[in-house]
Amino acid sequence: MFKTIVNAFKIKDIRRKMLLTLLLLLIYRLGCWLPVPGFDISAILAAENTNLSGEFSIFGIMNMISGNALQNCSVLALGVSPYITASIVIQLLTVAIPKLGRLAKQGEDGKKKINLYTRIAALVLALAQAIGIVVTYSEGLDVNNALWAGAPTWLIGAGVVLILVAGGMFTVWLGERITDLGIGNGMSLLIFVGILSTSAASFAQAVVLVGQDITYVWTIVLYLVAVIAIFALIVFVDGAERRVPVQYAKQIKGRKMYGGQSTFIPIKVNGSGVMPIIFASALLTFPQLIISIFAPESTWYQEWLGTGSWLYIVLLALLILAFSFFYAQITFDTEDISKRIQQQGGFITGIRAGRPTADYLKKISRRITFFGAIYLALIALIPSLAFKAIGDSVGWGILINAFSSTGLMILVSVALEFDKQLEAQMLMRNYKGFLD
Pairing relation of β-strands 262-268 and 256-258? Predict the structure, then answer.
């Protein structure tokens, strides 16, 4: 990967795109440290009801992927979380609503309309999340701020909500500019940078503990060994796939002969990526966000379904399994693949074309998805199970938040995708030079 980056940096056009991407990422990180006027950050950090350490709470996920922007009460505290949730919801609705499904298959025009619906949904979710943040941090509203001096609390809260929503939509705009003008995958790169900065800050806190107690060195060493092992597992599973061989019959069209070649259909073990984890955790913690808005004094949901409880762990595992199968059906449409193979004169050896081929591919996909779903559930539950086994050790808690298994999974997938983007752009340039 580093060799690919070095080679890409030697090409003028790609170097310009990379520098522009770095500039936009720098703007995003500066916005993550720019505080929202109206929040007393010291009061918020000292409040007992700020639960940002839970990796799978809504606020925990937002804080992780935004690079501690939520904890810093910055202008870009929402990050790309509303857009990600909106894109997942719209993608699921394209399956549930036939009209949206047809719209998604209408080429560039349909894609533009889907993106418009996604932005509208992101705006609505950003408004809901901003209200939830303000209600959760209501004790930290600064009525003595020079910008809000003399204003009632409700007006300060409304102003903060507007600033947070504007910051969230500005983050979406930055991600789209990186996609259009930079290397690509703008939203993923924003998440990548946010997780890296969060990990660096948490790991620095763990290193500081070494100065207080030298025995924490062994804690750090053991944890780094575990991180390397998890990293290797994620890379291995990310590249694992089942290849279904497909043979194409020879066809004579005019004076030329086509086909007669063999290829394969790759079915990835973890084709859905980290989406089932994010969607399952959001579904479990979304009621807590609603309760915090309308009944902030209620604590029963946190006690029974709070992050780390056994009921939460069991439900999270079951939802990850369910969403893995559901997401696999969306991303790997066996009916469509079977139809395309038949139209192109292809067949799977020993399997009749048409419906039998679709059933055969569906059977293989279910088996592969089952192992991928178990893998995702284990990756998601490692932090919670580790806390249960180790206890409330401060050093372990900081380290687990520094390099969470979910964060590592996102980092690996984004890094591999970034490498593929660079290689594709370099290959495209070589083709252009050859044709010129």
Answer: unpaired
